Structure formats: structure tokens, C-alpha cells
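so the lab meeting is tmrw and i was supposed to have these ready like two days ago... anyway. pasting both below. for each one the top line is the aa sequence and the line under it is the C-alpha cells. i havent really looked at them closely yet so no promises
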Amino acid sequence: MRIGECVRCGGGIGRRGTELCHRCRAADREAARRNPCPNCGRVLILQPDTGRCVTCSRTCVDCGALVRRSTDTRCLACRRRHATAVAKRVCPRCGRMGLIRANTGWCGSCSRPGPEPKPPRPCGQCDRQTRRLSNGLCSRCWQAHPDRARNQADRLAATITEAPWWLGPFADYASERMAIGRASQLVTAMGALLTAGDPTHPQALLERARTPGRSAGPLARTLEDFFVEHQLAFGLDQPARLAAGRRQRRVDATPEALRPTVALFCDHMITSRERARQAGTQPRSDSTIESNLAIIRDLAVFLTTTRAKFDWATVQPDDIDAFLNDRPTNRRRRLTATRQFFRWARKQRVVLVDPTTALTSQTERGFKGTTLTIGEQRRLFRRWTNNNPHIHPHEAAVGLLALLHALSVSELRRLQAVDINPASRELHLTGRPHPVPLDPASFAAVEACLTHRQHLRTANPHLLVTKITRPRLTPASPAYMTHVLDPAGVTIKRLRSTRLVDLLHSLDPKLVAEALGMNANGLLNYLADDVDTGRLPTPNL
């Protein structure tokens, strides 16, 4: 029964209380169920389990890609991949999994055999049978062949339009001073620099080979030694750059209120050093300048934190005296640096009065360090003379030479192979007027160092050759000498001090000074006033 007309489509309405017909009401209910699919964007009825439309809800079980057909569980690529994997069988010829060909009954590789492998041939150096030879040598022998780096340099020169003449000599230079593999790596790195298209003259290559950071890098160090030796370029200023960085860090660590004056004092010391070099006098070393800056930095921190003073003009003598008394053992050195700073500051009118004028060092002379007991010396002697393969030859040689012959750090660093006389078993040191006769234990340790040095195949003339100094001609670094005796738990200074104290308590100081090439007045500092109980004889109980 028709009651009225639909307000939307004009159709008949058979129910009271509504303005829409049955079809329009059903269309509204269907539209309310539709939402945009987050995958394809179409407005459809979304599946409750996936939140996407029906088409986007069918995904591959292997890769997750869309599957168009409702009967499939994998996409086309995964269906083909799965069919191939199922069809693979074990090849009866090679034993590997593969698709078996119907005509041969083998896999594809076995069905299309390549040329017959070459018969094994002997290596020209070690006679080892191998199928792969390079220049008549096996891989192991060719890797260690001295001409490897040179041949690599020749091949590199053939690919460069204007190859430098020194490329081959550089390869020979590197091969003589380091391992063949490392030399080949340097030639490869050099080839990358030459083919980069930038300026290729030696000085430009040396600057481009430098790596950022503390170390210039193995290529830059080797190039520097080679170019300087052949007078092709100037050396790198890497030590100067590192020293400048250390100075700047000390200036930056100064409190901000007192920092500008310290920066000017740093520039003054650099300028004074250059004037001293031009005048031919003794200039300040980098370590001296850095030590002075460190002391002034500590003084500035002390003034700002302890004395609440933020202006150099307000510093009083009692402030300086309190700073010096903070570390009585370093009073003399700290007073010297502080006095230099305030003398300069007064000339620059930063301060009106020098607060360090009336101050004195007031330090007692004498040896303040520690020595080893007899038991500790015997323990170290046994450690360095029992031929333990786990102990580095450098440790035994350095320890015995410092403990038995009182060699200093500088003497050990400067010691060269030509300074050792195997016939007379003596050392010829630069600072000592007489040769140093070696005992059997010390000479055996030195021989072990010489053998270790020969195995390194280095041109470095020094006895102590490290990983860093192997391709160079420089001595071992002070940092290496500081830690060379760390496994033994002792320092070179302590060993030397022990020996000097023993000598001065048993011999005439003048004779010891004459034998060691030292100042007799300086040796008197090792005559301690206290008694070392470890050296006293044990009473019979």
C-alpha cells in the first residue's frame, strides 16, 4: 500500500514515519559501512581483520606483496621461486642442489662444463703445487715478493698520462722499509691521489695525503721521508700543528675572565722563540711553552675558584704563595713560570706591581723519588733473564739497561745499532765519555732486540724500532718509552734512580759522575738522608 512519495527518488513509501523509500534507506546503510582503504585509497567496505579492502587484504605469505587472485596465497614471483625450489634435486655429478636437466640428468653447471682446469704447477720459489701462478710464483710467495710493489707501480704508471718519475723509486723505498703488503697498499693509495685530477706535484700530494687527527697517516709519513730525502718537497709541519693544538687547549681551559691575557702571553712566548732562533740563542722548546701555559692555567683556576679574583691586577703576593704551597714539590718550576708571566704582564701594563718579586723557591735539595728493594730487583732480573717468549725484547733490554747501567730515557731512545760493539760487548753512548761494558744478561737482551729488529726489515738505525717508527728514521716516541715497562709494573726513572742511589752509596760521587757523564752536583741529590729499610740486612732471629 503506497502511503507517500520518497523525498529523494520519488518512489513509493509503504511505511509510516519515514521520508525515504526502502531502496534509499538501504543505500544509506551501505554508504555508512564504506571507508577509504589506507592502502589503495578507494572507498569500500573494509575487512575487520586487516582494516583494508578485500583486494588489499590478499597478500603474499612469503614477501607480503599484493595477490590479485583470491585463490592464490603467493604472488607471481614467489610462485615461480617456490616452484623452482620444489623442483631442485641433488645433482649426481657435483652433489649440489639444482635443476636437473632432462637431456643430461645433471644440473646446469655440470651440463655446460667449462674448459678443463690447468694442471698444478710448481711455484718457482717454494715448489708448492698450485694451479694459479703469478709471475711463476704462488700466491703466498708473490705476496711477500720484494718486486710486488714495484710491478704494481709500473702498472699504475702505464695507466696515467703523465706518470711522475719518482713513482717506481717510491715503491722501492716503501718495500725496503716495511712489509710488502703494506708497501703495496701505499702504492694503491698513491694511485688514488694521482688519478684524482688535483695538482700532482710532490708538495701538493704530501698535503693531500695527510689524514685529519693527531697522526698524519702512514702514506703521509712515508711520502714525507721519501720526498725530504730526495729533496722533492718540504716536510710536514705535523709536530708544529700538534703543539699549536696543545697550546690552544691550555688557553681554552683558562677561566674566561683571565683568558685574553694568557692568550697574549702564549703569543709572546712564540714570538720570543722565533727571535731566539734568528739570533742563534737557545729557544724555548714546545714542552717548555706548554708547561708554562699549564702552570698559568692552574694559577688562573686557583685565583677564580679559591681567591675569587677575576683580574690579574688584583693578584697579591700571598695569592701566589698560596698557589705555590699547594704543590711544594713543584714550587721551583711553578715559581719560574709564574715569574716569567708577571714580568711580561708588568711590561705590558696588565699589572702595576709584580707579585712574585719577593718570593723564593725555598725547596730542599735531595732525591724525593722511590727506589726498588733488593727483592723487587731480583724479581725483575729473573723476569727479564728467563727467556720468556711472552715478554717483548724491548721490555727486557730497556729494563736491564736502566736497572744495571742507569741508562736514561733519552739515552735509550737515541741508542742505535751501530753504537753496539758485539766483539767487546760495549755500548758507545753520546753523552758518556767511556764505553759501557755490558754484562752477559744485558748483552743477551740487546742481542734479542737486534734479532727482533732484523725481522722487521727496517732501515731505522735505532735499536728500539716500533710499529710507528719502522718505516721511518726517527727514534721511539716518549709515549712508547713511558709504557714499555707497564707489564713489569715499573718505570724507567725508578730503575735508573735505584741504580744511581746504589752507586752513590758505594762509590765516590765524582767517579760515578765521570763514568756516567753527569754533573757531580746533580748526582749529590741522590744521596738521600733517610734509611731504606728494605736494604738493611735481615737480623738473625
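ok protien two:
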Amino acid sequence: MDTPKKLHKALTVVTFLYAFIIYILTMAPTTSFWDCGEFIATSIILGVPHPPGTPFYLLLGNFFSQIPTFSDLGARVNLISPLFSAFSVMFLYLITVQLIEEWRGKVKNWPDRLITYGSAIIGAFTFAVTDSQWFNAVEAEVYSNDGNHASAIVPSGASTGTHEAFELRDLENKEYLGKSVLKSVENVNSIISKTLNNFDTFDQRKIDQTLIDLDGTKQKKKLGANSILAVSIASSKLAAISKKISLFKYLGGTKSNQLPLPLMNIINGGVHANNSLRIQEFMIRPEKAKMFSDAVKICFLVIQKLKMLLNQKNLSTTVGDEGGFAPSLNSNEEAIEFILESIEKTGLKPGSDVSICLDVASNELYKNGKYSVQSSNFDDSKKTMDYYLDLIDKYPIKSIEDPFAEDDWVSWAGFMQLIKANNKNIQVVGDDLFVTNKERLSKGIKEQGANAILVKPNQIGTLTETIDVIKLAHKNDYKTIISHRSGDSEDTFIADLAVATGSSQIKTGSLARSERVAKYNRLLRIEEELGKHAKMANI
């Protein structure tokens, strides 16, 4: 056997073992939350779980339960996940090698081996440990004297601002690669639990202020914002359950009836994907949807057309952290062109029916006062502003998020002046700039640095602080966009929050991966509950 084939086979095995070892070390040692216990139990007894029943998985689970690998039957069934996930990573390596060889030709020399095998294994290794799959999260449960209980899960972000509230993780815990949240959970079960015992469930402000005081640091570094927020949100859910009303009605009042327009991610770049695109998120927004269900339908059709176009060009349709496609494209403009064609092939008009929205995430593209938004080369802020203006002139772009770095206030204000001078009706959104912080938002309003704010509860750490920021934004005619995080969970709280606060938009990824789809499903259920009283936001 020649050397390239031997090396290829060896790397195939290494890829599998690398993923399998990581997954087996982080595998749940027994039953865990949600449906896991049900599927483990029905696998062992060959029973029938909830529809659609998953018969093949049950047969597979029953087989694994009989293999004497672990003493715990749940762990035996759980072994399915690390084993087959490792195979997925291995197959990704093999597929990537094949695609590169189709493009460049067969491996002939050491430079070829480095390019082909090196690229493939880096891609596979990166996929094996993506944030959304493998970061632990904090889930808190709260209980009331009336016998009710509720829980909340706090997400994690890949692209984060330095001014965000602190996410407490066990950096010293090598078993979970420093990503576990055991200390945060301990804080919930001990310090927070003892302090909030016998508090009034319905006094959200008092609960949150107590949590803030209990921590005593500006960025909640003592207890961790993930610990605090989990309890804060769970408390609001418990109150709604005790009142026997929907969460959005409890938070916003019985007249809360506005559904947000989705900013739906359909192409991923930046730190959310393993490709060369500089801009982090390319999104679409259905401008004229009369119902939320119509908005989802429009986005679905555009996504399917985009998938078809990418397939026709033999480009990857694997997805990034937030569910958008992550093809290897040459430029931001090429990504936009694909989206435009997808909209047109759906029979819709770009700009009128469906607009394009961008999340630049410029913190990741900023160095020594310059930006690398167009390419890997760094330009000054003036050239970067001109580039954005050219994009706006050329394409139906209606929203740009984080066009400049989090502390580059001068460029933010300069860009707002530029778009006003050119009569551009563009939504300029501050995410890392504001980090859902009332003080930073107040400064932005004073300096006229934006006209919209991205709201992420885990950036600030309590529900009360989050709502206070939204109220301040609305008071100053700022649009509010309720947002997920790249490392999210199936918790649907932000869907209720968007409706409760009358926020005009929601950003929660694409129609892929359950942690994203769950939010859309919740909004569909809210629309159904509201019935004829439901209305869509207007931008």
C-alpha cells in the first residue's frame, strides 16, 4: 500500500478515536433530562415511547443495553450517542477528503497531503466540538408552596462582548475541558436557594435585586450570570404557572398580542462556521408577512431554494452553529447574490417582500483600529463605512448588526451620520456595543450611535434588567430584537419575551436544529392562542 493511502487510513482512525474519546468522557453516566429517560426505559423493555415511536432506535438501544459495558443500563443505552457521533465526525473527514480531491485532483505529493488531509481533519475536529453541541448549560428549577414548579436553561455565546455579564464555568475541570458548570449549579443549590427561600413568587423585581445584591459585582462574577439568570427566568415561569396564564401574558399583560418578524439566519460565516466568509450572519426578514406562520413559510421557501442552488454548484449544505448553511464562498457579495437568487426563485421580490439583514460581528474583525470586513486585509473605519454604504446601495439590505467594534463609539456615530446624510433607511443594531446594558444603551442614545438594540438576557443576567433595557430602548424609538445565543438550548423563553415586550423582531437562527426550531414552534403556538387578536409587527 502506498504512503498516501496508509496516511489517509491512519487519519481516518485517528479522527474517529479523537471524537469518540471526547464524547465518551462527556457522556451522561445515567438518565438525564427531558425525553432521555423515556427512551432509555422503552429501549430496555421494548416499549412504545411518544410518537413517532422510533422503532429502530429502540431496537438499537435494547441491543446496547445488553452489552456489559457499564453497570448502569442508562449509560449502556447512552453509548449509542458517542459511538455514532464519532462515526459522523469520521465520515465528515472522509467526505471532505473526497470533495477536495474532486476539486484539486488525487493526492500526489506531500503538499497535496497537507492541503487535503490537513484541511479535512481540521474541519472534522472543529465539527466534533462545536459550541451548540458540547457546551454545558445551567438549568435551574424553582418551586412554590402551591405545589407548582418551573425550570429555565441559560444559553452560551460563541461571539461575546467583553462588557457582558460573566458566564461562570469550571475552567480547572479538565474532565469537561473547562466547560462544565458544576460551580454554577452549586451556587444555585446552596447560596441562591437558601437566600430566596420563602420569597414572594410574584415579586420579580425583588427576586432579581436580591440576586444582584447577593453577587455584588458589576458583571456578576461571583455567582455567575448563568446561575443568576436561570433562577430569574425560572421564577417568572413559575409565577405564570401559578397564575394559570401563558408566560407572555404574565410578563406583558393580557393585551400582549404582537408577533415579531423573524431575522432568520440562512448563511453562516465568521466564528459560527468553518469557512472563509468574513461577515458572521446573512439573514432574511419577511417584510410583508400578515401572520407569523406566513413569515415562517416565506423563510422556509427561501431556505429550500438556497439549498437547491448550493447543491447545483456542488457547495456544502452543512450548517453552522445557528443552523444556516456554511458553504465555502469567496466573498460576502457572493453569499448575498445566492440569497437574492433564492428569493427571486421563490417568486418573491427582494427588498419589498424579503429583505437582507447582516450581522458583521466586527469585534472578531477588529485590530489596531482597523477592520477586515471585506477581506483578510485591514481597512480604516472610513473605508469600512464606504464598503457598507456600497453594499446598501447595491443590495436590498435593511439591517446591519455590529458594523463596528464594541468600544469604537466614534465609528458608530460617524456611520449613523453617513446613512442619514445619504437618506438610507437602515436599521443599525448594537449587540456587543450595548450588551443589553442600560448604562451602555444610555450612552449610545446620547451619542446617536445606533437605532436598534439586540437583546440577550444572558448578557445582563436578570429578567428585570433585561425588561428595563427594552423599556429604555422603546422610550427612545429604538427597535428591539430579542435574540438567542449560538450555544442555545430547547428553552423557548425568548419567544414569550418577544411577544410580552412588543419587540418588533426576533433572532433565533434558521429552521434547523431543535434548539432553534423550538422557538419558532412556540411563537406559532402563541399565534394560535391569540387567534384573531394576533398581529404582526411593522418595521
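from a quick look at the 2nd one: The chain has three domains: 3-131, 138-245, 258-536. The longest strand covers residues 138-143. will dig more after coffe
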